[in-house]
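Lay summary. Proteins are chains of building blocks that fold into shapes, and those shapes determine what they do. In this project we predict the shape from the chain. Here is one chain we studied, written as its sequence of building blocks.
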Amino acid sequence: MDIRSWALEMGFDEAEAIPAAMLPRAQELLPGARTLWILVTAHRPFDPGDWPEDGLVVASHYPASQQAYHRTRRLAARIAEAGCSALAHPMLPAKKAALLAGIGWMGRQDLLHHPRYGTYVCLHLLLTDQEEKGMTTRKVLPSLCGACQACVDACPTGAVQREGGIDPARCLRAYMLEGVPFPEDMLPFLGRRLVGCESCQLACPHNAFVGFAPVPPELREAVRLLGASEETIRTRCKDLAGLLGKNLIRPQRLQEACALCERSLRMNSHR
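And here is the predicted shape, written in a compact code that computers can read:
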């Protein structure tokens, strides 16, 4: 059974394994677990000029993560068919697992930096009772941020802390499509963002080599929500749920998000 080869065949860009015992809760989630796989999917930020005039903006992480979510489930099914137990998406800390596997290093903005893909990676986990040969404990890579404060200065709401880490209460993403009240003082910074911000990532010099990707045509059409009728929003809600996931895209929350973006744009037009 060559799980790494299977993962790469399915479209993952990297697959690394660590002993499941390195994360104590692994045994609770899958009794007999021996290996935790960290599955990496790389993506590129969407070209800011590629969105339609009446479109909202989606960070590239979300469609990439949705595709990787289903790939992980398919990989778990293939492992099970081969006679081993496998659990896709165990509730374990993905960034910690990636650090233990030596996949990347943590940045000031609390994102994992991959040496080839920058911060533009999705991490998915898979537990199995199949023992992967040759697993070794790797040294956690040190941060390369140094004295750089680019992400701190770029964050529109002051969520990125100078000493490192994120203040969740000041992060725009924490309020997007979550069904919670949006802070009034942060609303002017929302703009056309439906989900995701990326300001700290776009400012990071360690991401300078990552180019833009075109927005997929089906996503361009699905986000044409500014000024749309309730009926149109309901129709496009189904399309967006297929692209970004039903847990993220829910009809009432999408209606509210559209209204918030339009309010934000009006606030900015009156400045």
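What the prediction tells us: The two ends are 61 Å apart (CA to CA).
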